[in-house]
Amino acid sequence: MHDINLGLYFVSELVGTAMLLLLGGGVVANVILAKSKGFGGGTLMINWGWGLAVFAGVLVSSYSGAQLNPAVSIALLIAGKIGVAQFFLAITAQLVGAFVGAVLCWLAYKQHFDEEPDAATKLGVFSTGPAIRSYGWNLVTEVIGTFVLVFVIFAFADYGDVQIGVPGALGPLTAVPVALLVVGIGASLGGPTGYAINPARDLGPRIAHAILPIKGQGLQRLVLRLGAGRRPAARWHDRRTRRSGAAAPRAPLIPFPTLTTDT
Contact 29/80 with Cβ under 8 angstroms? Predict the structure, then answer.
């Protein structure tokens, strides 16, 4: 095993995960927030946005092996590719990076968050939400999606021979198939839950949402506690149909990953 600078290792994971969440959360915000130029871009735009976010995150975090996901770190630990200290350092950096990326995304779309009246839509930029709420089946979907992600990533990385701590070990040729994999998982398995498939990507932004001074935050928490918040996709589609004068559908028509993802 190569000698590893743990400081660079930590920074690599933090920066890579922050990049992932900034761009991944950004595409969700662009599609669902009020007055955004990308409003209504739909599922495929979000899937591709998350895929390209993964591409960027991998490129800037090659020193640590571009793990960016506690599930990947667990697999590397089990495979003996990283030690226990590296494992805990990586997942800590991933959580911090996810939080930082979510904050940067909020700053980039601050005015649109202020203009957006719907509480669930604003929350949807930070967190995933199931189309049909069933904790058991939602868990099954996430486990399957996460397994596919990790299993195929190991195949991309020369059947698990990931060079942790070697600058440039995971470059553009690895980043491209991983990005396409995330797009594919979103298109195939993202419908039921919005495909978090990454605990750091989901938890870090939720913490950011709870802390940030988002306009209407107090009312937002009350509304969500009362159970009035449907999936943002349903609300987004209802708003579009109201604007066109059509009747709003009773069920969400466009499932999509929300931050932030969707990897």
Answer: no
